Amino acid sequence: MPSLEDSTPKGATPSWLKTIPNIVADEIFSLAADFRLDTNPQKVDLLIGAYRSDDGNPCPLPSVLEAERRLLSQNDLGKHEYLPIEGDVAYLRLAQKLLFGQGDQSELLQRMVSVQSISGSGAIHIGAAFLSRFLKPGCVWVSDPTWGPHIIMFERMGVECKKYPYYDPATRLLNFQGMIDTLESQGQTGDVIMLQVCAHNPTGLDLNQEQWKVIAEICQRKGIFPFFDNAYQGFATGNPEKDVWPLRYFASLEHPLTFCVAQSFSKNFGLYGQRTGAFHFITNSKETTIQPNVLQQLRFIIRTEYSTPPRTGCNIVKTILGDPELKSQWLSDVSSMSKRLGQVRLALHDGLSASGESDDFDHIIKQNGMFSYTGLNPQQVLRLRNEYHVYLSSSGRISMAGLNSKNLRYVYLFIEELCLEIEAPPHWWNFAHLSELQRISCPETLAPFPLFRYPVGNNERMDYSLSPRARATKFFNEVVTSTTLPGATEDYQGRNDLAYALSKVPMLTPRKVKVIAVGAGFGGVDLARAVRVGKLPGVDLTVYEKNAGIGGTWHESRYPGCACDVPAHSYQYTWAPNPHWSHFYAPAPEIKQYFEDCADQHDLRSYFKLSHKVVEAKWIEERQIWQLRIKKTDGRDVAISSPGVTDGETNDEFIDECDVFINATGFFNNWKWPRNVPGRETFQGTMFHTANWPSVWEKDIEGKTVALIGNGSSGIQVLPAILDKVKKIYVHIRSPTWITSRIGEKFAGPKGVNYKFTEEEQAEWAKHPEKYLDFRKSMEDDVNTRFKFFMDHTPEQKLARQSAVDNLKAKLDSRPDLAKLLEPDFAVGCRRPTPGLGYLEALVSSKCEVVWGDIAEFTPNGILTKDARESKVDSIICATGFELSYAPRFPILGKDGLNLQEVWLKAPESYLSVCAADMPNYFTILGPASPLGHGSLVTSIEMCNRFIVRMIRKLQTQNYSSFTLRPGVARAYQNHALSYLKRTVWASGCTSTYKNGTKDGELRSLHPGSRIQLFTLLEDPRYEDFEWKSLCEDSDLAFAWLANGFTALEEERPAGADLTWFVDPADREAKPIQLEASHYANGSE
């Protein structure tokens, strides 16, 4: 038989070789090769999905290193025998358990065949070969977009691939409707569908549980075969058990499906070179002849391709999963990797969003896992690579693991630049172009120092049994190992160990400090976010919360009709704008869900310790620390916290200590029963408070006769909400109040109704955040200009009064007698104005009877008024407000044992609402003299926290152990407040919350001025109002914090750093001197 070369002239290339076509190289690996050849020192690799630590290097997992050590000590790594064709049986059993759980899986195992594979891609190849031979699918459905080899592997087997919609380029979100519509209309029996279990590659968008159930139902009904790709287990949520919920659901169906799974250990074990995986085939039948046949066919495929799988990676995985201690370490390793990816994702989003000028990047934080589908187009990607040496795939997919503290700013500045189509020269990358707001909001622009990178090995928790000075010395001595500048100030050696340690590190290196906050409401959540995004590098934060959930007031407030009485679009964090509020005044469940979303999307839950009640705090002067006594609660959903109340407390008590203590307990949850009304315990019906609403309440209301005490905000909201349910209701009112929607009235809808936003409006704001920002700013502007209406005898106050009177008379036109009773003689705003939607209309209902006057006592049958009228009722609802003395719920002992609880019970005094006299390193968020009546409290809380952040950073970076208000400062500030507030409507003759439920009490709760005035004061701290105690006792060493004479910016030189910021013109409108107009044009001097 002639050879192939016989017809070819000697020395010539055989013709068949010339017919071999070229094909397009794999984009990712081709670009990776280009990246290695790139000599630019600032190049960034965002291509391959391999985990990297913050220094940009591969990061072997501690669990893997320990497993390798054990195997090496057992000489197991030296074994070079073949494994069976199907692989290591013990390894496969552990791999099955990782997918389907540790419980009794005997029934499932009878339906399952598993073989070891060359990682996840090898498993997909095995599955493609098997299905193409035996199922012979009409087509394989893959997501659009998908991981490229999904298509290649099946098409090489002669199977057509089709795409189902998955990613919507317009919204940059999941297109689930398009997915199911396509499967319903085009999917055929015998088709295969590729489904990624979690952390979808490349989009980072996953189906939720309800959507998975829909897919399972379609597959069952239409006979479509599911092929699962499980490459990133653990990277979506940080919990490998949660990530495989779809697999366990499909395996547990009442009518079983046949499906298969490709499993990879490359990513979640960091075994990229070991190529370790498994292929699992699960049938819908326990028929004993099927599984052996399937196994034999899989063995045949493997034997003809690579004979047997490698053993090293499988031994590592087997060692880890088979040892409880190592598995626990591995779970922690996976959680840490996932958490870091989430932090980088959030930092990228915040950096891109900081200016508010470029595209909307919220889709980035709605994705998860290793990758982000940025939405950048191929032209932008090409420019990033060619002009800025940032490498990513043409689809815009980036590997989040490639981002770190050195390159993050470099990347997001240029992405933002491309989106804005700005041709900015390199000198534009500096801190000077950012506003102060952007510097604070942006994790990588922390003026006056860049993001500080703690050295590897120094991330363990500090030993807080040491003094702050000892801790600082230990810390700075460890930091020096990471610096590039050798040497120290030798004059300090032997004189002061801390000063000597400081002289080795850059100036403004933040020392580690521990911060404890109490309360996971708006204040506590905002603090957690500040730490998460890097505003306080080196801070170890714990937020103790007495309840079983976050949200503070909004976790506890559940009465019918409960809603925010200020506009929802003002009542939110500036860093988490929500265009999807359903109504102008958001209902309580939506606000509670907003908290949950903020915590989840910004990865904040690790900071909160729920069901923990702080019962005492004490400053230890000699150690310069706060010592807190904490009791665990029994896990009840809401635990009451009031002086002397032990609700929910257990005997499990412990001590925790910190450098800085922040009281964020708020005030709208320390509720009170009707004051000075005896007989409450004698009432034989049901009595409850609106702030402590029972979970089961309908039986006490429906068809019953009810009394409602109070006409403050909660009383006004609850009445119309329960009116239809009651048989009759007595509304007890002792003083009139104003019903008005003055806050943002022109946005609320006709006549102040609670406007319901359409889905189209919400979608428009979500798509165009700049429009949404304009809307929010317009509303805030309306709130801020409204402060004049709180000044007595102003035209604005007169207009507000006339508007409220007209509203009252119009809605009570059938009851002019009632209108006369309800019209106050005090100014609008003296009591907190409430929109009162439906309240006045409810008062004139035939079911409602208004009982005017003071209550004398509770009786066994109801309520007796002072004019001897008795309301006989089945249930009593007390809408009687909150205790606003500002006294802490638990003893707080400051300098010399001074108890703040006792002091503030008599006369609360604070400075800017955040600091108290004689309380070192202590803050209270919205204490006395806060803007309670000025508008949305959320923005005020954020501003308070920004002040706190600045104070803590000064403590960290300028060698201080503590700060305390100078004697007399709080008293002087309070004296000014009390004098100023006499000119406001709050001082007019009404009984109000602002005076702690009294008529003539002092206005200690309110800020003496506008919100803008307070924000301005908080933005520029007067450090001179505090006494600062240095960690170096020797006064000659007061400037030891100047450190090694360099700034961290000089030493770190992060990408994009500008060391010539001082050359930039202070006036951006500055124009160069024109030579011809200059005195020097003629050469004269």
UniProtKB/TrEMBL annotation:
Protein name: aspartate transaminase
GO BP term, pick one: amino acid metabolic process
Keyword Transferase appears in the UniProt entry: yes
Cofactor: pyridoxal 5'-phosphate
EC annotation from Swiss-Prot or TrEMBL: 2.6.1.1
Pfam families per record: Aminotran_1_2, NAD_binding_8
Annotated source species: Fusarium mexicanum
Family note: Belongs to the class-I pyridoxal-phosphate-dependent aminotransferase family. Belongs to the FAD-binding monooxygenase family.
EC supergroup of this enzyme: transferase
Gene Ontology terms, MF aspect: L-aspartate:2-oxoglutarate aminotransferase activity; pyridoxal phosphate binding
Oligomeric and partner information: Homodimer.
UniProt keyword terms in alphabetical order: Aminotransferase, Pyridoxal phosphate, Transferase
Gene3D superfamilies assigned: Aspartate Aminotransferase, domain 1 (3.90.1150.10), FAD/NAD(P)-binding domain (3.50.50.60), Type I PLP-dependent aspartate aminotransferase-like (Major domain) (3.40.640.10)
Span of domain Aminotransferase class I/classII large: 42-411
